[in-house]
Design brief:
With 280 residues, this protein is an alpha/beta fold. 39% of the residues lie in helices and 21% in strands. The protein has 2 domains: 2-174, HUPs (Rossmann fold, 3-Layer(aba) Sandwich), CATH 3.40.50.620; 187-279, Pantoate-beta-alanine ligase, C-terminal domain (Pantoate--beta-alanine Ligase, Chain: A,domain 2, 2-Layer Sandwich). The mean pLDDT is 98. Bound molecules: pantoate.
Length: 280
């Protein structure tokens, strides 16, 4: 497995692999890898990638000034071992200084899908995500890139960026991986205390109930269900950030929940912000 820290090294290697006719997959991550990330690598393998590049970079420009950039969990040694064991063929481990010139001044700003949900609450977040992902596309030169459904709004925005800016990269989206308890896997779960964990299960419980009801009733009037979910989450000890039902492509709110719509939840559990979602 190759390990690159310099953007130019990765770019040169990727160019060579492309010329040799190899199919390159990119799995962008911020590290502290868990089963969810490993499922992205497994998907890259299943889809026939010859080279699987995992990028591990806690991207400073997608964190707000009061967010957890400094304390975001990092474990380079364990991440490298996991990448090697799961079949990655290259890892890209840049530093902020070699990703961003001191006078870096070009950013990608998606103007529609990012206005709601996490975009509305984390100003600048998706601008940082789009900018780094575009850079990673230019460096790893992937034929396809794999993202998790866990960050539903992120994958929608990346797909929009690829469409609108004509990136020659196919986007593959992989279902959420959950702990046996139902909790969606996330590097930030490490912040949860023993008392927080049972509270956090209210998220997947609410989504499971909704999926069951949509399957049974075909349509649900969203407003009363939303009120009920917000109440349930609060009663479980969570601080609700948002509970929204949207169209899967446009992310516009829906009034009647039907199959194919997406319900997205964001809460604070203790001091930890958790997100989850489900396609009905
Ligand atoms: O989903 C993530 O971990 C990050 O937002 C990404 C896509 C690696 C960009 O930094």
């Amino acid at each position: 497995m190759k390990v690159f820290t310099e953007p130019a090294q990765l770019q040169k290697w990727a160019e060579g692999r492309r010329k040799a006719g190899k199919k390159i997959a990119l799995v962008p991550t911020m590290g502290y890898l868990h089963e969810g990330h490993l499922s992205l690598i497994a998907a890259a393998k299943r889809k026939g990638a010859d080279e699987i590049v995992v990028s591990i970079f806690v991207n400073p420009i997608q964190f707000g000034p009061k967010e957890d950039y400094a304390r975001y969990p990092r474990d380079e040694k364990a991440d490298l071992a996991k990448c090697r064991a799961s079949g990655a063929t290259a890892v890209f481990f840049p530093t902020p200084d070699n990703m961003y010139a001191k006078n870096h001044s070009v950013f990608i700003d998606e103007k529609q899908l990012g206005r709601t949900l996490c975009g509305a609450r984390r100003p600048g977040h998706f601008r940082g995500v789009c900018t780094v992902v575009a850079k990673l596309f230019n460096l790893a030169k992937p034929h396809f890139a794999v993202f998790g459904q866990k960050d539903f709004q992120q994958q929608a925005i990346i797909r929009r960026m690829v469409r609108d800016l004509n990136f020659d990269v196919k986007i593959v989206v992989v279902p959420i991986v959950r702990e046996p308890s139902g909790l969606a896997m996330s590097s930030r779960n490490t912040y949860l205390s023993a008392e927080d964990r049972p509270k956090a299960l209210a998220l997947s419980r609410a989504l499971d109930e909704l999926k069951r009801d949509v399957r049974r009733e075909e349509e649900l009037d969203w407003a009363p269900r939303r009120t009920q979910i917000v109440r349930g989450l609060r009663e479980s000890g969570l601080n609700v950030d948002y509970v929204e039902a949207v169209d899967a492509e446009t992310l516009s709110p829906v009034e009647t929940l039907v199959r194919g719509n997406v319900v997205l939840l964001a809460v604070y559990c203790g001091g930890t912000r958790l997100i989850d979602n489900a396609v009905m």
